[in-house]
Amino acid sequence: MASAGHLVTWLLWGYLLELWTGGHTADTPHPRLRLSHKELLDLNRTSVFHSPFGFLNLQTMLLDEYQERLFVGGKDLVYSLSLEHISSGYREIHWPSTALKTEECIMKGNDANECANYVRVLHHYNRTHLLTCGTGAFEPLCAFIRVGYHLEAPLFHLESHRSERGRGRCPFDPSSSFISTLIGSELFAGLYSDYWGRDAAIFRSLGRLAQIRTEHDDERLLKEPKFVGSYMIPDNEDRDDNKVYFFFTEKALEAENSDHAIYARVGRLCVNDMGGQRILVNKWSTFLKARLVCSVPGMNGIDTYFDELEDVFLLHTRDHKNPVIFGLFNTTSNIFRGHAICVYHMSSIRAAFNGPYAHKEGPEYHWSLYEGKVPYPRPGSCASKVNGGRYETTKDYPDDAIRFARSHPLMYQSIKPTHKKPILVKTDGKYNLKQITVDRVEAEDGQYDVLFIGTDNGIVLKVITIYNQETESMEEVILEELQIFKDPVPIISMEISSKRQQLYIGSASAVAQVRFHQCDMYGSACADCCLARDPYCAWDGISCSRYYPTGTHAKRRFRRQDVRHGNAAQQCFGQQFVGDALDKTEERLAYGIENNSTLLECTPRSLQAKVIWFVQKGRDARKEEEKTVSW
Questions:
Q1: Which of 72, 193, 432, 620 shows the greatest Cβ crowding within 10 Å of its Cβ?
Q2: How far apart are CA 364 and CA 118, in angstroms?
């Protein structure tokens, strides 16, 4: 609102102000663009799949680039969706529990809605088959789905005659914490493996190796864990030395001042672990775990910790032994609520597992660094050539090595993130962050990791963070805020295809796909494009369009882009910058009454733009900036 007198002409000048400011020096809480669900549909940037049965109850998604399909597990159903356009050409498998199993489930006192077959496992088993498991009305079962070869006639068939019990592979309860990964023909699963949901364990099953699990009722290993993610990450070229990593949160025994402290963990074990010969028979003998720290340093030396791990994403690099790990955390405090994203390198994780063990002499003692003699082979190491090749399997390990591993699963050193602090912190309480995927992009001025963050109200945030080495500070740039679903429903699963530049997003009721970028939405001028700071986009002399690194498209015109600084004045010099921009400034004529107020309306496309109004009292008078009150 602005006061006005006589006949006045108001000119909108905010566009030029944003141009001339050059780069950004501070984080902005506003996204560059905010697009509603309707706008995404109108732009043909998204497509949404709804179950023809009216419900989906999504549990898991599997992206298959080879088959060019997205497989979706839900309640009594498995869907096969086209990666090109998920809302057309779908296939389905109806896989309900039998009427008898459903009735027995209800008779045991379970809710009728839970007494169904919730499909929670979908993995590539080989080129022609998927492994799938479901809760089976509280009697888990597994089967194979034949999908055929890529160039064959389309197949999507459940081989129910090959179904078998799924205990240790799939939880009983559809809402129970659960993760799994398939390595070769071996299924590794972190789950609550009993009907009552009390027996938390990590299992290996299905393949040629013997079934193996964590010990029963040993809180030193797992104490009320919430499983978040699992990955096989090799240390070297020796397959016998391969290890699988589990990311989870649990109640921390070493937090002696609190019985309810929750810590984020990384657990590690050898893929070829066979257990011990006399001790830990058919139990993991190489399991170790370490605390995963994500905290903000405090002014008084007291850090603010984000201990509840919500999601984890593994960003593969050219070196398959050293992926980058992104963790999405929230706080466990009832007073302070916030979210943070921390980044970890495998060197830090390996250093913790190669470091000292945590030790507690007895119930009345405190946890400390173990300073005694460590047996050979080092507890937690695999039976491999890299480790000397002296032992064929862990069954050959000496009893003292197995005994030590059993009593010392916790490492003393915590795992710290890159830069020793988060790359992003959110404490505004606008929404809760639930899912994360990352795409690594080559831009004109370097390499950037674009974060796609799913929230609990159906929004995906597209964000980059830029580290300033001189100030040791992190700048957060929110590029887009996308309302993926019509209703504000939680996002519970996300898959990413860098090859297709598409994001696949699952909620309980629907699955959506959305393109990474829509460069022309930033504006039709060079400055609009450069100020966006989107590594996917650059000014090509005519429009804001997709950026391709040098050599990718030899015939592309010159590109103007500055992601790090957003310096449009420098990038767009001579590109219809000053004179033409002035000519395009919109003028509006408004009438006002002296000593009264006039409503001035202007909604720029960019939410980061600052709008300034000038008043001109008379046609030949000088323009003067007018003080306004924003609503």
A1: 72
A2: 45
The residue ranking higher by pLDDT, 430 or 563, is: 563
The answer to whether residue 176 scores a pLDDT higher than 90 is yes
How crowded is the C-beta side of 13, counted as CA atoms within 13 Å? 14
d(CA 379, CA 285): 8
Instruction: Give phi and psi for 512, each to the nearest 5.
Output: -125, 155
Name the residue among 76, 73, 49 with its Cα closest to residue 62. 73
What radius of gyration, in Å, describes the C-alpha atoms of the chain? 28
Region 299-327: mean pLDDT is 94
Beta bridge partners of 304: 296
pLDDT at position 617 over 80: no
Q: For residues 444 and 200, what is the distance between their CA atoms, to the nearest angstrom? A: 48
Domain ranges of the chain: 2-21+581-625, 59-512
- Which residues lie below 8 Å from residue 449, measured CB to CB, with a gap of 6+? 315, 324, 326, 438, 439, 440, 441, 464, 465
Q: State pTM to two decimals.
A: 0.89
> What confidence score (pLDDT) does residue 607 get?
60
CA dihedral 281, 282, 286, 289 (to 10 degrees): -110
Sign for the pseudo-dihedral over CA of 481, 483, 488, 492:
negative
Query: Token pair for residue 251?
Result: 């109640």
Using CA atoms, how far residue 472 sits from 2, 305, 347, 422, in Å, is: 42, 19, 21, 12
* pLDDT given at position 69: 96
Instruction: Provide the total of helices (H) and of strands (E) in the chain, helices listed first.
Output: 8, 41
Residue 559: both structure tokens together: 């590109």
pLDDT in tens, 207-223: 999 999 999 999 999 99
CA distances to 411, 421, 422, 475 from 303, rounded to whole Å, are 21, 10, 12, 20
Do 386 and 242 contact (CB within 8 A), yes or no?
no
Q: Which residue has the higher pLDDT, 217 or 453?
A: 453
More confident residue, 573 or 11: 573
Instruction: Give the separation between CA 434 and CA 489, rounded to whole angstroms.
Output: 12
If DSSP states are collapsed to H, E and C, what string results for 211-245?
CEECCCCCCCCCCCCEEEEEEEECCCCCHHHCEEE
Torsion of CA 528, 531, 537, 538, to 10 degrees: 70
Highest mean pLDDT among 388-392, 529-533, 600-604: 529-533
Residue 108 burial (C-beta neighbours within 10 Å; 0-12, 13-18, 19+): exposed
Summarize the confidence of residues 155-173 as an average pLDDT. Answer: 94
Partner residues linked to 587 by β-bridges? 11
**Chain-centre distance for alpha carbon 251:** 23
Average pLDDT score over residue span 155-180: 95
Q: 12 is written with which tokens?
A: 């909108």
On the question of pLDDT at 630 being above 60, the answer is no
- Nearest 5°: the CA angle 316, 320, 326 is 35
Q: Which CATH architecture has domain 59-512?
A: 7 Propeller (2.130)
Give the pLDDT score at 364.
83
DSSP code string of 429-455: -S--EEEEEEEEEEETTEEEEEEEEEE
Span 539-559, average pLDDT = 76
